[in-house]
Amino acid sequence: MILCDFSSIIDDYDVFFFDSYGVLRNHQGLISGIDKTIKYLHDRNKVIRILTNDASRNAAGLLATYQRLGIRSLTEDQVISSGMMAKSYLETKVKSGLVVYLGTEQSASYIVQAGLEPFPISRVTPDMYDEITALVFLDDEGYDWNVDLNKTYNLLRYRNIPTIVANTDKVYPKSDKELNLATGAVARILETISGRTFIKFGKPDTQMFIYALESVPNYHTYSKSKMLMIGDTLHTDVMGGNKFGIATALVLSGNTSEKEADLMIRSSSIIPDFICRSAGL
Ligand SMILES: [Mg+2]
Fold first, then answer.
1. Could you tell me the residue range of the domain that residue 97 belongs to?
2. Distance 234 CA to ligand 1 centre (A)
3. Is 239 within 8 Å of 270 (Cβ atoms)?
4. Domain count of the chain?
5. CA atoms 63, 270, 264, 262: torsion sign
6. Are strands 25-26 and 29-30 parallel, antiparallel or unpaired?
7. What CATH number is given to the structural domain containing 94?
8. pLDDT of residue 208
9. Span from the CA of 238 to the centroid of ligand 1 (angstroms)
10. Residue 121 C-alpha to ligand 1 middle, in angstroms?
11. Is residue 105 part of a domain?
């Protein structure tokens, strides 16, 4: 495994797609040197988009986190979340009725933005089943896993409704040594048990990359050979970037440790173009 310095590849690209958690920040705050990276790119008028499989809050909420951490130059249009994909789907495919969600109240803003009525799984009772028109997995917090996952299962048994997973990630780093199960893991449990096929949004789906690119003014003037996806997870960030046909950099500042990177790349056959310790300068 050849490690390269992020500073040695930064000048070769014009469009930068960054994953958020494990790349720009972690449980302790900003990854060291990321503020310098963002400033370096802004100073040179490079395009930055943050592509996150985080549907726990809307773009404004996600942006507020970065501003609080000291990166004030980022703007709301630079943040693309998988929740935004779920919102578009709800808007066009689910016209009315109660949309039941698993997540925090904050995450339910994607349902509100789609013009629909959010309803937390914790308040669902069997006599309401007929009024429910969709089910959305938004976040791993905001509900009681024991009580509310059983409720979700029973709702799925009774109603054949579109079930949307707004974050397909299986795990996220909780500390240096611990990972937490993410929304995607919770959804997988229910998908397996119910035998249904859920509708999933976020990386590695190409749809999110297209959405992010189309949000760039005059995007057709940029060549794919000048675009780089930077992520800490092979199965979402690197696979997504590879499928989209752009260069990929795996960073070792999050989900993938230096110790396991080589083995994970070999066993998954998901091959990044670059491996860097971090995207910080
Ligand atoms: Mg990540």
1. 83-200
2. 9
3. yes
4. 1
5. negative
6. antiparallel
7. 3.40.50.1000
8. 94
9. 10
10. 27
11. yes
Give the distance (Å) from ligand 1 centre to CA of residue 141.
Answer: 18
115 occurs within a structural domain: yes
pLDDT along the chain (281 residues), means of 10: 93 97 92 96 97 91 91 94 94 92 95 95 96 96 97 96 94 83 96 96 94 96 98 96 98 92 96 98 96
Residue 31 DSSP code: P
State the distance from the centre of ligand 1 to the C-alpha of 129, rounded, in angstroms.
36
Q: What is the pTM of this model?
A: 0.89
What does the alpha-carbon distance between residue 136 and residue 32 come to, in Å, rounded to a whole number?
35
pLDDT at 176: 77
CA–centroid distance, residue 143 to ligand 1 (Å): 23
In a domain, 104, yes or no: yes
**Residue 11 falls within a domain, yes or no?**
no
Separation of 192 CA from ligand 1 center, angstroms? 25
Q: From residue 239, how far is each of 163, 180, 188, 248 by CA, in Å? A: 24, 22, 19, 9
* Nearest-angstrom CA–CA distance, 123 and 112: 17
- CA 250–ligand 1 middle distance (angstroms): 10
Q: How many Å lie between the centroid of ligand 1 and the Cα of residue 179? A: 12
